[in-house]
Amino acid sequence: MNRKHTLYILLICLLSIPPLQAQRLEGLSQEALLHQLDEAVAARKSYRNARVAQIDSMGHRAQQLEGIQRAEAYLQICTAYSSIQTDSAMAWLAKTESLPVFSATPELQTRVLIRRAEIYGVMGLYASAQSTVEDIDIAHAPDSIRLAYYQLCRKLYGWMADYGEVYGHASHYSDLTQRCRDSILAIQRPGINRNIVLADRALTLGDVALARTVCAQSLPKADELQRAYLHFTMSAIAHAEQNTTEEIRYLAMTAINDFRRGVAEYSALPKLAIILSSMGHPDRAYEYLVCAMDDAAYCKARLRTVEASTIFPIIEQNHKQRVRQRFLFTISALLTVALFLVAMAFMLLGARRRNRQLAEMHRKLDDAIAAQRQVNDALSATNLQLQQTNRVKETYIVRYLERCRTYIDSMEQSRKRILKMLRNNRQDEILALLKTDSTIPHEETLFYTDFDEAFLTLFPNFVANFNALLLPEAQITTKRDEMLNTELRIFALIRLGISDSNRIAHFLNYSLPTIYSYRSRLRNKSRFPKEEFEKRVMEC
User: What is the DSSP string of 310-336?
Assistant: First the structure.
């Protein structure tokens, strides 16, 4: 278990590097952010387990503390659990109250009441939360306690205004929320946390420009939790400006931040779900809302359950309609292909046999489609081979005609030269010329050069592909002044479809045993079985 907890803690530490991650998110497009969010939704349990492991390690360390320090540690653990699992948060509050230092520390008692009221609010127990708030006395409390108190009231009255069950009192709770917000601004020191409240107040009063300016100035220096609040406020600003694209982006960034922090009580994802549903993305909206409801149930956050349940019927209806449309489209496609077969099966065999016949026909249709694909692939391969063959023929015909023309011209020159010698009775020079003439070797060299150029024009990667078939120590390297050597020419002819050793020997002016020797030696140095080697040469 200790090893497992250590791994979880390491995971959450790696995933909680806020500035770099946040900058990456802010630079992504809407679709890229939604893709990141999909991955975060899929991995949310891992994030949550890592966060719980981290909190558990805090609990182990707290046991080693004494007095007020242990109480402070217990309250930190309660705060951490309040957005993950309210039952655990309440359990740690009870542990705090059981400490001897609790009864002797009024300030600690007030802080416990504030935390309990907040947890009641998350659980949707507004009457209990309000009753607890009324028991809190901050008349002589320090600014830190008063600030925590007003932050609690701002949350609680805001929730009651949005999701409260007291009909007709929304405006009253909205006024109380605004008063608490003003009290927070009067107490809280300048900084990002105060800017968050200031931007919220400006947005509530309709000053969207001021809210945007405050958020933009605060984002570069904000930590992970502060960025979550700022991004959520920016989504509200985008909503006020009717900029749906920006609203989706900031809600997605907030939701990703929520998951990476391992929390199970959040509001960004349900808001994003209802927007996506209205924009024609019911599947993704449905998945997000089901995720939000599951997490709310895990956390026992009745507040978020009520929030999700109010929009779930709309999204579920859109999702069911989308599923129904897909189903109808699939059925229509299948019936278009197999209507005649289904009708015949219905007429001949009845309802039960009709279903079996339809399944059989579908299987045959799939087999026919697969067979047709094989035929199409074979035709495509054949067409490609024919095109390549035609290209080879055209290239070599042109080369052949040019070589024949050149050879005829050379023979004509030799004929004129010998005729001139005969007229001048220079038989000795003719005899010497015929004995020493290097025309044939020269023509043979030109012939091989033409062949090499034509072949490498058709197959420019042949040498590299051929060497890839051989073992490293058997790689063939040509000389600087040659394109192909004898070994490569033998297999170049095989690549052209000339596999008969007699024809290869005649073409290259070598003996038949020499050709056999070359072919056998290279087969033995192949990286593949001997019987596959020359088949693979045909693919070079």
Answer: HHHHHHHHHHHHHHHHHHHHHHHHHHH
